[in-house]
Amino acid sequence: MKKTVFAVAVWGCVAWLAISCQKNNHQFDASGTFEANEVIVSSETAGKIIQMFAEEGKTLPKDTPAAVIESTALELQKAQIEAGIEALQQKTSDAGPQIAVLEQQAAAQEQQVAAQQEQLRILEREKKRTENLLKAEAATQKQLDDINGQIAVLQKQIAATQQQIEATRKQVAAQKATVATMNRSILSEKKPLEKRVEQVNEQLQKTTVKNPITGTVLVKYAEAGEVTAPGKPLYKIANLNVITLRAYVSGAQLSQIKLNQQVKVLVDAEGDTYKEYSGIISAISDKAEFTPKTIQTKEERVNLVYAMKITVKNDGYLKIGMYGEVKF
Predict the structure, then answer these.
(1) What is the phi/psi pair of residue 198, to 5°?
(2) How many alpha carbons fall within 13 Å on the CB side of residue 167?
(3) Which residues of the chain have pLDDT under 70?
(4) CATH number of the domain that 323 lies in?
């Protein structure tokens, strides 16, 4: 009987030593919980949700459609504005036909002036010839006077035709100015309407909700068929490929850590084993705070600590809210 008791006692001591050694092997310098940069995606426009592609646990690439909001009202509004722009275009005056007639008239008058100037050159040559003949007493003074009279009449005709051309050109300019003034007042309404079309187009683009980051959908807040509004959450997403452990250290431990320092991160596995990851310290708080209630014992929660963030590459095992321990 004594031998049995002694054997049990020895076995108990061995077991206690084994457990103690195992615990000592897994002493840690800090602990905390895993978190991720979560993004809550909301609709930027109001309307009925036609399609919802975001599903909990589903991975969505960046910029892919996550939801489609009904756009019938916006499309009707756009069509109405575009019809107004087209109606304005029909109200504008076209001075082309009237201006074409006036320009044809001016061209004919210019041709007439050209013909008259050619006649004038002929008469000028005839005048010089007659003057030479008169000096040789081969022509009379009356012949020279007749030519001078023809030249004077032709010069007056040329001047009158040139005045007609100038008047016609002024009519063309006046017609263009009048029509331009009329059209300007009409088309001044066009630019605000075009701006409204741009605004509606922007709203139409927002009816397709684009996923902002590549990640996994954590929570889905809305379903197809529901009515949403600007700012109303549709789903929550986070990139779980890289996850962050928020841990806490005491003031005395600050000298042991620095930014970009590589550390060991341990998480619970099967039984009493741990799964080990490599992490990088990405942030260290410069402000002390009380130990969070979820960390350490009741006595230790009254101590001031400093938060730090450790970036860990996730192999799929790490989950948000899971506890982790850190070894420097």
Answers:
(1) -60, -40
(2) 8
(3) 1-26, 91-95, 291-302
(4) 2.40.30.170
